[in-house]
Predict the structure of Response regulator.
Amino acid sequence: MKKKIVVCDDDAAILNVLELALKNEFSEVYLVSKSRELIASVEEIDPDIILLDIEMPWLSGDDILLELRSSEKHQNIPVIMMSASSRGKQIASECGADAFLAKPFELDDLLLLVDKLGQA
């Protein structure tokens, strides 16, 4: 099933890998490398799923997710948070993420999560 997926990460290599992996499976993949541009991108794209890095310059992923969850229009978009931080899972849980992936992760695990959350 084709999905619109927004990936927000400040690491260009991760964006490239995720774009390739997700495009093969889900079609429309939008990349956002600057956290402060994510909300505007979500407004414009209206994605089915968001992949969001926690630790980024300017706005952290948890701050962005809290803003999304406070928006009536965007509060129900499934969000998978990603981080290499030892506190990543806790942070993702506290700010209302639907799922968490510890970096580095297996692409198969990511694809299964995206598929699962995309059916909700």
About this structure: The first strand starts at residue 3 and ends at 8.
